């Protein structure tokens, strides 16, 4: 890595280990040598709506400390609020009560993150509901995030909004629209998904990192092809990773860089085992310019449907 910038720290997302109990997933990642974990709050992994949340969170904090794992809190669970609507309800819903449910979840995530010592809370906007015009959607998003940002400021935990293909806030330009609408609050930051940059940004993923550096609070990483929103294991897409990791190092990014393979939980331990050596080799190649070998996965991927994670 660039002299003086420090080594990058890699994690793996629990949304890619959904078939494992949380404690088993954490033990696996520690044994494999990961620096941390991207913890998606979900029914199987620290359910944010189940009883005794505070006590369960304290136990998890002790477990993370024992294993030496850092953590970021992610809020992309598909059905944690509504068993029939993927990622619903969002901050963009017509019904105020629906929007309030998402605000409550994000506020809970902030409190959990503070208790765990997480470096950020990740979230995204959601898709624009049918019949809702774009200006109204942007207004709802800003209004919904305002109390969450107040909670984030009180807890001193950054809120890292992710541009998500197909959502209202889909691009880096959209993030800046939100930032300006909210008058650039100190605790509003960015989750940059490297694959999403490859999918739809006009800049290369490495240039996206450089452009996003001042607001970067969380990073997700996987392979992807241009124009196709499908999270892929490393080596199965088009991304050139050494320049991306060099750009992260040059930006002095200090958070976790978390592998995001939510559609590969059927082979989660396998992909977790392969991903860390690949990323470490790519980080080394960022300075030595050696080619990075493509991992041999050996396990069939889940049948992709091209939709959002």
Can you walk through the features of this model?
- Residues 26-281 form the Xylose isomerase-like TIM barrel domain.
- Residues 287-297 have a biased composition (Low complexity).
- One of its GO terms (molecular function) is isomerase activity.
- Helices cover 40% and strands 15% of the residues.
- Strands 3-2-1-10-7-6-5-4 form an eight-stranded parallel beta sheet.
- The longest helix has 22 residues, at 134-155.
- The chain has one domain: TIM Barrel (Alpha-Beta Barrel).
- Helix 3 (96-116) packs parallel to helix 4 (134-155) and helix 6 (194-200) crosses helix 7 (205-212).
- With 309 residues, it is α/β, with parallel strands linked by helices.
How do the strands and helices of this protein lay out in sequence?
Elements: E1 9-13, H1 22-32, E2 36-40, H2 53-67, E3 70-74, H3 96-116, E4 121-123, H4 134-155, E5 159-161, H5 172-181, E6 188-193, H6 194-200, H7 205-212, E7 216-221, E8 223-225, E9 228-232, H8 241-250, E10 256-259, H9 268-288
Parallel strand pairs: 1-2, 1-10, 2-3, 4-5, 5-6, 6-7, 7-10
Antiparallel strand pairs: 8-9
Helix pairs in contact: 1-9, 3-4, 6-7, 7-8, 8-9
Domain Xylose isomerase-like TIM barrel: 26-281
Region (Disordered): 287-309
Pfam families: AP_endonuc_2
